[in-house]
C-alpha cells in the first residue's frame, strides 16, 4: 500500500519558499509566489479530492482571483494525497442544483479556467486516480504531467450513467477513437501513465516525489515570459478550436495585432530591468574577485 506523502497531507501541503497563502478556503489551498506562479491544491484527500458545490465555488473564485491579479502569470493545479488526483463529482452528497431543471449548471463551468475567461496558462500535475469529472481539469489545461502510477478512466457507464459532457473536451486532446475507448470501457480498463503519454493526454511522466516541483518549474518558466504574449497565445489557440479554419486564421491575425506591441514592450522592459540589475551587482562587487564566467552552451534545453 502506498504511504501518503507527508508533504501532501491536509493542512501541511508542500509549498515553494516565499509563497503567500490565501485564507478563507476550506476545500482548496491557494498560494502565490514572487515568481508569479499561483498554486491551486485540491484539498479533500479523504474524499479522493472529489468536488462538491463548495469546492466548485472556491475554484471559480480562485480563477477569478488569478484573472484579476497582475502579479500572477501562470498557474499550477495539483491535488493533496497520493491515492487520487480527483475522483470527479462527490456522489455521496447532493450537488445542490435548483429545482428548475432548465437552470441546472454543469460543474465544469465553475471548475474550468476557460469558462471563467481566465487565459493565464495552467499546468496540471496528476498522481493516483484521475476519473470521471476529473477530466474537466485535464480537458482545459494547457500542460498536463503525471506520475508513473497515475491512472485515467471514467466510470459513468459502469454505473448506468450516460457519459456525455466530459468526452467533448477529451476528444480535442486525444481524438475520437481513444475517447470512445475510455468512455465505453468504464471501470474495466484504466489508461496507464505510459499510454497517457502515447495518446497525448499528458506530455511528461515525472517521479512522484518530483511531480509538484516539476510542475512548478514548468509554470515558472512560462511565468517569466510576458503575460500579454502567453495569455494571448492561450486564448488564440483555444478559441480557434471553436471556429472553422479560415475564421480561426483571420481571428488569430487580429490577436497578433492586438498583443504583439504590448508583449514586446513588456519583454523589452524586463530586459532593461535585468541589465540594470546586472550593472548594479557588478558595481557593488567592484574591488572584489571577478564573478565566475557563465558556463557556455545554449540557453535552451532539449525536451
Strand content: 5-15%
The residue ranges in which pLDDT falls below 50 over 5 or more consecutive positions are 1-12
Number of strands: 10
Termini, distance in Å?
Answer: 33 Å
Strand order within the widest beta sheet: 1-2-3-4-6-8-10
- Average pLDDT figure: 86
Q: Give the topology string: H per helix, E per strand.
A: EEEHEEHEEHEEHHEHHH
C-alpha Rg (nearest Å): 21 Å
Question: Which architecture of the largest domain does the CATH hierarchy give at level 2?
Answer: Alpha-Beta Complex
Describe the 3D structure:
By secondary structure, the chain is of the alpha/beta class. It folds into 2 domains: 6-93 and 108-223, 2-enoyl-CoA Hydratase, Chain A, domain 1 (Alpha-Beta Complex); 227-271. The protein has helices at residues 53-68, 107-111, 135-139, 166-185, 193-198, 211-223, 227-240, 245-284, and strands spanning 20-22, 28-32, 37-42, 74-79, 84-86, 122-126, 129-131, 143-146, 151-153, 204-205. The chain has a 7-stranded mixed beta sheet, with helices on both faces. A 3-stranded parallel beta sheet has the order 5-7-9. Strand 2 (28-32) and strand 3 (37-42) form a beta hairpin. Helix 7 (227-240) runs antiparallel to helix 8. The longest helix has 40 residues, at 245-284. Mean pLDDT is 86; it is low at 1-12.
Amino acid at each position: 500500500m502506498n504511504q501518503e506523502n507527508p508533504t501532501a497531507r491536509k493542512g501541511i501541503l508542500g509549498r515553494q519558499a516565499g509563497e503567500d497563502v490565501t485564507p478563507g478556503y476550506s476545500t482548496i489551498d491557494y498560494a502565490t509566489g514572487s515568481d508569479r506562479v499561483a498554486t491551486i491544491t485540491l484539498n479533500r484527500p479523504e474524499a479522493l479530492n472529489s468536488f462538491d458545490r463548495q469546492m466548485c465555488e472556491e475554484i471559480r473564485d480562485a480563477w477569478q482571483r488569478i484573472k484579476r491579479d497582475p502579479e500572477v502569470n501562470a498557474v499550477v493545479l495539483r491535488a493533496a494525497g497520493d491515492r487520487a488526483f480527483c475522483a470527479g463529482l462527490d456522489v455521496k452528497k447532493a450537488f445542490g442544483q435548483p429545482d428548475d431543471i432548465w437552470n441546472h449548471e454543469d460543474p465544469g463551468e465553475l471548475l474550468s479556467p476557460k469558462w471563467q475567461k481566465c487565459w493565464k496558462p495552467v499546468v496540471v500535475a496528476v498522481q493516483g486516480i484521475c476519473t470521471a469529472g476529473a477530466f474537466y481539469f485535464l480537458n482545459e489545461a494547457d500542460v498536463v504531467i503525471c506520475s508513473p502510477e497515475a491512472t485515467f478512466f471514467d466510470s459513468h457507464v459502469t454505473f448506468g450513467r450516460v457519459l456525455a459532457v466530459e468526452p467533448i473536451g477529451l476528444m480535442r486532446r486525444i481524438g475520437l477513437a481513444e475517447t470512445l475507448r475510455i468512455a465505453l470501457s468504464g471501470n474495466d480498463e484504466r489508461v496507464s501513465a505510459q499510454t497517457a503519454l502515447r495518446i497525448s493526454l499528458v506530455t511528461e511522466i515525472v517521479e512522484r516525489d518530483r511531480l509538484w516541483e516539476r510542475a512548478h518549474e514548468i509554470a515558472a518558466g512560462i511565468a517569466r515570459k510576458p503575460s500579454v504574449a502567453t495569455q494571448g497565445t492561450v486564448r488564440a489557440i483555444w478559441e480557434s478550436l471553436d471556429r472553422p479554419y479560415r475564421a480561426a486564421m483571420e481571428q488569430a491575425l487580429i490577436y497578433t495585432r492586438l498583443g504583439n506591441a504590448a508583449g514586446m514592450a513588456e519583454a523589452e522592459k524586463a530586459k532593461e530591468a535585468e541589465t540594470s540589475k546586472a550593472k548594479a551587482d557588478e558595481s557593488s562587487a567592484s574591488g572584489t574577485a571577478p564573478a565566475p564566467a557563465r558556463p557556455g552552451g545554449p540557453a535552451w534545453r532539449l525536451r
